Amino acid sequence: MVGMMGAGKSAVGRTLAQILGVPFIDSDDEIERAAAMTIAEVFARDGEAFFRARETEVIKRLLGGGPRVISTGGGAFLAAENRAAISRAGISVWLRADLDLLWERVRHKPTRPLLQTADPRGTLTRLHDARVGYYAKADLVVDAHPDYTLPDMAKQVIRALKTRPDVLEEIN
Ligand SMILES: Nc1ncnc2c1ncn2[C@@H]1O[C@H](COP(=O)(O)OP(=O)(O)OP(=O)(O)O)[C@@H](O)[C@H]1O
Ligand SMILES: O=C(O)C1=C[C@@H](O)[C@@H](O)[C@H](O)C1
Ligand SMILES: [Mg+2]
Predict the structure, then answer these.
(1) Alpha carbon distance 84, 87 (integer Å)
(2) Ligand 3 centre from 2 Cα, in Å?
(3) Is 38 exposed, middle or buried (0-12, 13-18, 19+ CB in 10 A)?
(4) Mean pLDDT estimate for the chain
(5) Is residue 166 part of a domain?
(6) Minimum CA distance residue for ligand 2 atom 4
(7) Which residues form a coiled coil (predicted)?
């Protein structure tokens, strides 16, 4: 799962993995566990570049396992190295959500270090505009909508996956 903060990568990914009966792993959670710190603490103590290096390591390691759903962090798909690793080992799914929905979902949580600015909505907008071209490189896209539940979203992802002949057999 790739896409912006608040798109639902973690929540939809977890539901999707349950439906498919495969493990679910979240790269942000893995980084927090390995560092024994929150992402905000990693950013504050070691900086974003350090976080990005750990993120690449974690994603490459997770991609080496068996069939699974991996939810990445919102910035992961920006790096060409990560995109290449993901497309070698898996299928990327962009959860596309518009800014109003993203903002609605991130505004109440102070856990995202990149949004700790004087104008978080403006920051979210700038990040979105700068990133959308990278997310568009994903293999598949699924649109989020305020009325879609997590199972609705997971089913949309499955429907998109079924357009891929290489996964059709595995998820039937
Ligand atoms: N379809 C949905 N229905 C209801 N709530 C949702 C849905 N998708 C996401 N949410 C909620 O929106 C919030 C943000 O979702 P989530 O944490 O999955 O985003 P994310 O893409 O993983 O963001 P990040 O890049 O910051 O990790 C969560 O509280 C989640 O439960
Ligand atoms: O969009 C981003 O760059 C980020 C999203 C989160 O998932 C975390 O990976 C971190 O807060 C950075
Ligand atoms: Mg997440």
Answers:
(1) 5
(2) 9
(3) middle
(4) 96
(5) no
(6) 74
(7) none
